[in-house]
Each structure stands twice: as C-alpha cells, then as structure tokens.
Amino acid sequence: MPEISRFFGIVITMYADDHNPPHFHARYGEFRAMINISEGDIIEGTMPLKILRLIQAWVEIHREELILNWKESRNENPNFSKIEPLR
Predict the structure, then answer these.
(1) Please, are residues 35 and 55 in contact by the beta-carbon 8 Å criterion?
(2) Residue 84 is inside which H or E element, if any?
(3) Which of 5, 19, 16, 22 is nearest to 57 (CA)?
(4) What band does 75 get if pLDDT is binned at 50, 70 and 90?
(5) Residue among 70, 57, 55, 76 at smallest CA distance from 22
(6) What percent of the chain is predicted at pLDDT more than 90?
(7) What's the pLDDT at 17?
(8) What three-state secondary structure class fits 59?
(9) Separation CA 86–CA 12 (nearest Å)
(10) Measured CA angle at 86 (ends 85, 87), to 5 deg
(11) Dihedral sign for Cα atoms in the order 50, 56, 22, 24
C-alpha cells in the first residue's frame, strides 16, 4: 500500500484498485481508519478526534490531489503522487 503523505505521526496510504467510495487509509499509532475523500469522515475504523480534525484539514487542502490519486488507483499499474504534508 503506497504511502502518499506523512505528517504529525499520521501515515496516509492508498490501495490500488480499492473499493468505492473513493477513500484513503490513515494510521496513527494503533489507530486505523478509512477516510472518505469527499466528506473527510470515517468510513471504517477509529481515530482520536484531534487527529481526525488534522486529517480533515489536510483533506480540505488536498482534495483534488486525492481524487487524482484515486483515479490513478484504477489503472493497472498505478503511479501514486506524493501529497504535501500538513504543516
């Protein structure tokens, strides 16, 4: 699962040819969550509220890039783009 960003101990990844709706995976310590790109909400898993708010702020800034990576994930050999971390 390619890492597309990392910030404040949060690791953001995306699977190739993953199921809908468009989403990414976030890890923070022992927490794991699938995050919906369009809304920034948790589809599955758990995340501390403070960390979820950081992820949601990052999604707001980089939603277009996330959508492009999601579209790329549909290709046979996807080439995911790195996305700038939250600073």
Answers:
(1) yes
(2) none
(3) 5
(4) confident
(5) 70
(6) 86
(7) 83
(8) helix
(9) 11
(10) 110
(11) negative
CA-wise closest residue to 22 among 68, 77, 82: 68
What DSSP letter does each residue of 21-33 carry, written as one string? SPEEEEEETTEEE
Strand partners, 25: 13, 34
Residues 6+ apart with CB under 8 A from 22: 36, 37, 38, 66, 67, 70
Report how far residue 57's alpha carbon sits from residue 77's, in angstroms, rounded to the nearest whole number: 29
CA dist., res. 82 & res. 17, Å (int):
17
pLDDT digits (tens, 9 = 90+) for 13-54: 999 888 999 999 999 999 999 999 999 999 999 999 999 999
pLDDT of residue 76: 86
